[in-house]
Specification:
acyltransferase activity, transferring groups other than amino-acyl groups; single chain; GNAT_dom; Acyl_CoA_acyltransferase; alpha+beta; eight-stranded mixed β-sheet; Aminopeptidase; GNAT family N-acetyltransferase; binds coenzyme A; about 30% strand
């Protein structure tokens, strides 16, 4: 089931389009990813750990399964008025049959577009899309999970507002630039209830 593109208002008065990501977005997603990592907020990678070029990045997305068209990947982007990508979010299902009802969520908003409602829009529409999806045999995603740094208050507030709960802590999971050890949280949302997003 494909996502129908939607025009959406942002908090600064501008509008944007939320749509399904395609393989053609790889170069723009590469630029977006770099900008998010360079801002050093909420992320776990350094810039020099990113793929060196857009082609390698595209290859990694493909190998991760994010470009699959078989109902195992749900990638969304928000495109600004000038055509640049303001944010992206995806849910990727785990391949094993016993785990296929589990989707792993990732999200990132361009530093210059943060706080405008892009993250909330992406989360809301992504969860709606996944809730509505049914496989040919009627199966669907029943659990969405994510990992978030314990010091990422903005992201945690957003996830909680959408019903995600804290399920566990990986203590001292990452070492910040100043050497501080930071926990990270596993958060989960069950889609077994009839409503929710
Ligand atoms: C976390 C992130 C996805 C949120 O997206 P965003 O577009 O900036 O957030 P929104 O403008 O949609 O705000 C969503 C919610 O975040 C919370 N929020 C926003 N700004 C906040 C702040 N400065 N402090 C605490 N919470 C804040 C609010 O709960 C807000 O809800 P509201 O819509 O009721 O105001 C985005 O900031 C981001 O990509 N950050 C860097 C990378 C990252 O942290 N990714 C997530 C890794 S798990």
């Amino acid at each position: 089931m494909h996502f129908q593109p939607l025009q959406v208002p942002l908090r600064d008065g501008r509008s944007a389009v939320i749509r399904e990501a395609t393989a053609n977005d790889a170069a723009a997603l590469f630029v977006l990813d770099r900008a998010i990592v360079r801002a050093r907020q909420g992320i776990v990678k350094h810039e020099d750990e990113l793929p060196p070029d857009a082609a390698t990045f595209a290859d990694q997305r493909e190998r991760a399964g994010l470009t699959k068209q078989d109902g195992s990947a749900f990638p969304l982007v928000v495109e600004g008025e000038g055509g640049a990508l303001l944010g992206e979010a995806s849910i990727l299902r785990i391949g094993y049959r016993m785990l296929r009802h589990v989707g792993v969520l990732g999200i990132g908003v361009h530093p210059e577009a943060q706080g405008l409602g892009v993250g909330r829009l992406l989360m809301r529409h992504l969860l709606q899309w996944v809730r509505a999806h049914r496989d040919a045999d009627g199966q669907r995603v029943l659990r969405v999970e994510l990992h978030v740094r314990a010091d990422n208050a903005r992201a945690i507030a957003l996830y909680r507002a959408l019903g995600f709960t804290h399920e566990g802590t990986r203590r001292a999971f990452l070492r910040a630039d100043d050497g501080t050890l930071v926990d990270d949280f596993l958060m989960g949302l069950l889609l077994t209830d009839p409503e929710g997003t």
